[in-house]
Please model this.
Amino acid sequence: MDGQGKAKPLRGGLVRLVAVISTMLAASGCLGPKAVRLTRLNYNEAYRTTNDEQLLMNIVRLRYADSPVFIDLPNITSQFELSSHGNYLGGYGNQFGGRTSLGFGDLTARDTPTLSYHPREGKEIAKALLTPLSAELFSVVNAGANTEQLLLMTLNDINDVPNAIRSTVMVPTVPGDNSAFRQGIKQLVRLIELDAVELLIGITEESDASSDPIPTRQLGGDDIINAAKEGYVFRSRGDAGMALLKRDKGLILHVRDEFVDSPEIREFARIFKVRPGLKTYRIKSELTENPGSPLNIKPQDDTFYMNMRSILQIMIFLSKGVSVPEDHMISGVAPMTLDSDGLVYDWTKITAGVFSVQVQKHRPKDAEVAIHYRGYWYYIPCDDVNSRAVLSIMEVFFSLEESADRPGGPLLTLPVGG
Model:
């Protein structure tokens, strides 16, 4: 027998085995980066989609006066495993006589995610849902938020001009109206488009809180420095001396010089009862004032006092934009409000142009987000950019209002797959 002839299959088998092992090692070395490429965006999209679905579900629930429920997904832990197995028969097969180059090998990879769910409950969700927003949140306008949407969503009134206040009640007994409020907001949007005004964080001085004039000779350098440390400033009152004024940092509406006396500004000032002809207007939440005394808004004021809504009130307001099936109205499953003529009041006109949820019996094909509830599909069409933007804004609101000291709370941890 030729020894070299017998060795060839053996060497060929070893070469194949080395090739298989090398392939397995190479695959294991690049598994991590490839796993990130293959899975990260998929998790990202699934997280965004389910967030939108949960938010839409809760808005629809509120339209039916049902309880909203929020479950967070704070942690996604995904473990990637690669296992391999190879077997070379050493040149001898069990099924064939003589030498053979047969061998066996397998390569297995799997992704085993673990999801940790956190139900929001107790003080945590109460604080996030019931605390009125602050006026400073309007600085997000500069980050690209739609001004009209933002103001219609978040305000009950400005200087007692109402924005359909009853729309924040789950089961309102009387209709709401926001026609004058909308007119004022549209005027503001027009001014912003003309680049006539801008919202920004600035410093104002409270002239109403000034002290009696102090003779200038009685003031020293230390007095001025100490006043500045406490947020005060001295201002001249002519021959009477210097008065101490409180400096306040907050949101202001700045009017550009060429528009100070424009017809647009005067109309805007008329609707919201502020003094026309000023370059700077202060914007404050009503909560910053003494809650025990009425605001007593006067036409000569230079301040927009805003009655801010909580996140829950905003969601109830948005729920008025949910279309309700006729059989739900007839059966009384969905709360209805009657107008002065005894007809069903159409709440969707209150949120028109801001937020709208369509309804149909079968699953929609053109939906950006859709949920199934009480036998119907409620959805936001792909081309309804305004309603889609509202969901994004609501996510920002939740992030801003979420308690910083979130309790550990019970977590429901579910391993997926196996």
Summary: The CA atoms of residues 136 and 265 lie 22 Å apart.
